[in-house]
Amino acid sequence: MTFRIVLAKRLRLVLLVLIVGLPAYTGVPAQTPQVKDKPYVVEYYYRAKWGYADEFIRLFKKNHYPFLKKKVDLGQALQVTAESPIYHATEDGRWDYRVRIVWKNVQTALDNTGDDQILKQLFPDQETFKREEQRRFEILLAHWDVPIKSVNLDEK
């Protein structure tokens, strides 16, 4: 599966979650301006085949992270961070990397206008880029995206 196809599927999933579930998550109708203007946080989880986590993160840093940094430079994303667990978990709950992206807002997170131009600018050798992105997804066992919201623990 190519990078563009995976990205398109991921964006469709996020859009579906937003259309169906955003009011339930926020407690506010989806049309309110406050929701549109707030940063939108998504955590992306990756579980690689055993022994391939290092190759995955190497390819991620080489081919996807520069793209995400460009999104930050353009003001479309506010922050990109990555984490990995220190200890292991059971196989069904295992993940190797969690990438958290704080998008400017939900619309920006879903808008891929201009992404092809950014990728061509960052990676003139598109054949190598596409081959390495294909490899990055080949070594994944699982990948899931979790839009998250803050919970005010002091609110009664």
Report on this structure.
With 156 residues, the protein is of the alpha+beta class. The chain has one domain (3-148): Alpha-Beta Plaits. The chain is 49% helix and 21% strand. It is built from six helices and four strands. The chain has a four-stranded antiparallel β-sheet with strand order 2-3-1-4. Helix 3 crosses helix 6. It starts with a helix and ends in an 8-residue tail after the last strand. The model is unreliable at 13-34 (pLDDT under 50).
Q: Could you write a compact summary of the structure shown?
A:
The protein is an alpha+beta fold and 156 residues long.
Secondary structure layout:
Blueprint lengths: L2 H24 L6 H5 L2 E9 L4 H21 L3 E7 L13 E7 L2 H5 L4 H8 L3 H13 L1 E9 L8
Antiparallel strand pairs: 1-3, 1-4, 2-3
Helix pairs in contact: 3-6
| CATH class descriptor name | Alpha Beta
For the termini, the CA-CA separation is: 47 Å
Element-by-element helix/strand order: HHEHEEHHHE
Number of domains: 1
Beta strand count = 4
Strand sequence of the main sheet, in spatial order? Answer: 2-3-1-4
Q: What's the architecture in CATH terms?
A: 2-Layer Sandwich
What is the 3D shape? Answer: flat
Using only C-alpha atoms, the radius of gyration works out to 17 Å
Could you name the ranges where pLDDT drops below 50 across 5 or more consecutive residues?
13-34
How would you classify the helix and strand content by structural class?
alpha+beta
What's the helix count? 6
What fraction of residues sit in β-strands? 15-25%
CATH fold description: Alpha-Beta Plaits
Helix content: 40-55%
Q: Main beta sheet, described?
A: 4 strands, antiparallel
